[in-house]
């Protein structure tokens, strides 16, 4: 009976130690930013890899050569999610084929820069997603 009480006491002690360990605050490990790229804002459009592929294929296939004036304006477009596209940059409507296959981007506009597709949120003209 004495051995049984010792085992029980050890189990209680182990359970108490586990609970104490789990209830202690945990300090977040913040990765060092030295020598790394700045963190990007989270994309506001949730796209799967397949949807990203569909968008890029359709947009780049349908893309026509832009006049030099528009190419100069597109050079000023930010390539970071969350940044605002400057006023005066010509945005293209989402192609019907893309909107039918990826409905969550139906109301968005697009821009193509350096073979990358930027999905622009029409509410605030911010880059909602970047498809590389």
Describe, in plain words, how this protein is organized in 3D.
The model is unreliable at 28-39 (pLDDT under 50). The longest helix has 22 residues, at 2-23. This protein has 132 residues and is an alpha+beta fold. It contains 4 helices and 4 strands. The protein has a 4-stranded antiparallel β-sheet, with helices on one face. Strand 3 and strand 4 form a beta hairpin.
Q: Whole-number average pLDDT? A: 76
Indicate the CATH class of the domain at 49-131. Alpha Beta
CATH fold-level name of the domain at 49-131: Nuclear Transport Factor 2, Chain: A
Radius of gyration: 26 Å
Q: Roughly how many Å apart are the termini?
A: 70 Å
How many helices? 4
How are strands sequenced across the largest beta sheet? 1-2-3-4
Largest sheet: 4 strands, antiparallel
How large a portion of the residues is in β-strands, by DSSP E? 5-15%
Along the chain, the helix and strand elements come as: HHHEHEEE
Architecture (CATH level 2) name of the domain at 49-131: Roll
* Helix content range: 25-40%
Structure class: alpha+beta
Shape: elongated
Quick structural gist:
With 132 residues, this protein is an alpha+beta fold. The chain has 4 helices and 4 strands.
List the helices and strands and how they pair.
Blueprint (H helix, E strand, L loop, with lengths): L1 H22 L25 H14 L5 H7 L17 E2 L2 H6 L7 E5 L2 E6 L4 E6 L1
Antiparallel strand pairs: 1-2, 2-3, 3-4
List keywords for this structure.
132 residues, alpha+beta, Nuclear Transport Factor 2, Chain: A, four-stranded antiparallel beta sheet, 4 helices, 4 strands, 37% helix, 14% strand, elongated
């Amino acid at each position: 009976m004495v051995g049984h009480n010792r085992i029980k006491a050890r189990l209680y002690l182990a359970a108490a130690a586990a609970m104490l360990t789990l209830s202690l605050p945990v300090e977040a490990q913040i990765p060092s930013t030295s020598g790394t790229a700045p963190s990007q804002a989270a994309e506001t459009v949730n796209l799967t890899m397949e949807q990203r592929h569909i968008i890029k294929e359709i947009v780049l296939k349908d893309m026509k050569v832009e006049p030099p004036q528009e190419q100069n304006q597109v050079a000023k477009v930010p390539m970071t999610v969350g940044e605002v596209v400057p006023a005066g940059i010509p945005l293209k409507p989402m192609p019907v084929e893309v909107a039918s296959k990826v409905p969550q981007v139906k109301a968005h506009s697009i821009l193509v820069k350096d073979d990358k597709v930027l999905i622009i949120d029409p509410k605030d003209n911010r880059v909602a997603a970047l498809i590389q």
